[in-house]
Amino acid sequence: MSDFQSDAKRGVDIDSEGKDKCVQNKKIFYLKAAILSVAIIGLIEWFTAHYRIGIDGQEVRCLPDHSVFMVSLRDKEPMRGEIIAYYAQGLSPWFADGTLMAKIMTGMPGDRVRVDAEGVFVNGEQVAEGFPLAGTLEKSNADFFTEYTIPEHHYLMIAPAPESYDGRYWGLIKEDQIAGAATPLF
Questions:
Q1: What is the pLDDT of residue 6?
Q2: What is the DSSP secondary-structure string of 22-69?
Q3: Which of the residues in the chain have pLDDT under 50?
């Protein structure tokens, strides 16, 4: 056999080996891509099972310094002073049932609440002033005056913005409405 035929034979072998290596590299690439895709999907599933992102798109925010929150669906044990996300219930026509909202946990079971002309008081401490939305709600300030002890599994949610539609107008939320603790992102 001539050198030319020998070289040609080797060339065919090299091409065949190159194709095999290329096919093998593609298989490895696809395997890595599949593993990475499964990992990303798993991470997204885990995140959505444990967290929600809440965005306050209102022109006047009840929590003025923040517009985006991460809500931990696992952290449902409310703490006084903490921002809590909850699902609206009975707040129509302003908010549909199930709307995710966030306010500050101001009153807890056993707390004494007094609502009078000066505002809202929890255990004697003022937590909100006045009723700037009373006219919008077609009510007088006196319509909101009350005094009570917060029962078990209920909470008073108030926000620092005077224009906040919060517990001073609609009362308490139930424990089963709580989505979780809300951490401001920005």
A1: 52
A2: HHHHHHHHHHHHHHHHHHHHHHHHHHHHHEEEEE---SS-SSTT-SEE
A3: 4, 7, 12
DSSP codes of every residue in 65-129:
T-SEEEEETT--S--TTSEEEEE--S-TTTS-TT-EEEEEEEE-TT-EEEEETTEEEETTEEEEE
Tokens of 37: 């895709």
Q: For 69-78, what is each residue's pLDDT tens digit?
A: 999 998 778 8
Q: What CATH number corresponds to the domain at position 107?
A: 2.10.109
Does 110 share its domain with 153?
A: yes
Q: Does residue 102 come out as left (phi exceeding 0), alpha (psi in the -120 to 50 range) or beta?
A: beta
Closest CA to 126 of 135, 138, 116: 116
d(CA 181, CA 74): 8
Total domain count, the chain: 2
